[in-house]
Amino acid sequence: MMKRKAAAALALLMTVSMLAGCGSDGGDKGKKSDGKTTLTFWCHQNEPWVKSYEAMAEKFEKEHPEYTVEVQDYPYDVYNDKIQTAITSDTAGPDIIAVWGGMAPNFIGTDALSEVPEDLAKELDKDYMAPTVGSYKKNGKYYGVPMEYNLEYGGMIVNKKLFHEKGVAYPTTWEELRDVSKSVSVKNGDIVEMKGFEMFDTDSLICNYLAMILQTGGQYLEEDDSVNFATPEGVAAMEEILSMIKNGECDLTHLTDGDYCFNDVYQDKGYMASVGSWAIGEGTGTYELEYGTDFEYVRVPQYGDQMSFASETGWGLIVPENGKNKDAAWEFISFFSEPENLVEHNIACSQLPPRKSLLTNETYIEKMPHVEFLLDILPNGQWMGPYNTSDMREVLNQTFLNLCQEENPDVEDALKEASQKITSECKYGYSAE
Question: Cβ(310)–Cβ(378) under 8 Å?
Fold first, then answer.
């Protein structure tokens, strides 16, 4: 969810000036002296993504010379507050906003967003997979268009060099995964100096845990959409992952410091880390490693008998209701969403495509062969549910941390308490359907 953030220090330096400027961003709306209409596009700072947005803006301008699209990027740490200020302002702000799906309900619930036009809404119903649109719906209507299929389950970064030096093959079953994880991990007192398999950061824990419940035939969502983790499947899955910590295969470092487990793999401090395919770019970019030589991205062995998992709604595009160029903004989003354009963006950003029709797209598969195995499982995903998933994961993560501190924890009781807290505090205040 909070993937691809900018540095907090930069965010603090820019916060005051940005928030103060929210009301002024819309001052140049309308046509310029050259007769063109300027569309302002907000996004968060992420170099490959910003470049892709700018390339799409340029492509749109060539086909629609009556428009100019200005892309403005901001640090993620203050981005959502900036959006909230802009869309509730009396003065028009941006025309188009790239938003994290988990935060979209905060904006949708205020009735501050423009409804997706009918023709594009039909496309969402017809060709977009359920997890990609879940958070963009209110009372059966859409208020956002997904740009990706957000998947934090299914793949893992592996340190190829460490596996080669150890003479160990990548695990292909859950039993092999646990055996390898135990055999390669090194613990020195309370410190795990070499990690085996890691899935304990703020994104990975909840996604893997829910997948484990679903793969063993369980379900955590009741018919009324309340959460219930305290099922036999939920208890068994929690006990399984608790054993990874108790066995010293990994530790709780990244669940408390907000960092990602894959950093250990890239720094030769870990063998395997569950994460979405987006992290491949961190390896080749931030760490300047070579894919296929230093690391690879492979399938996480399935825990249960049936492939199933839960997914949050990922990044998408929204249009503020107070925007001055709403029709033009939706025209740009419709252009962006055309299969050939969307697949260009997904490739550029190492994303998974949200449209069913792109699962067999030859261009995508040719450019992204290392994630082809994920395309096969995307239709098996369910939407995580009508919850503020940021708050939902905080409750589950804290529950897990508490359980790890207890010598003989009552897992079922702890999961009951967490389920009740999530249901009462994190559920949307409106119906998605």
Answer: no
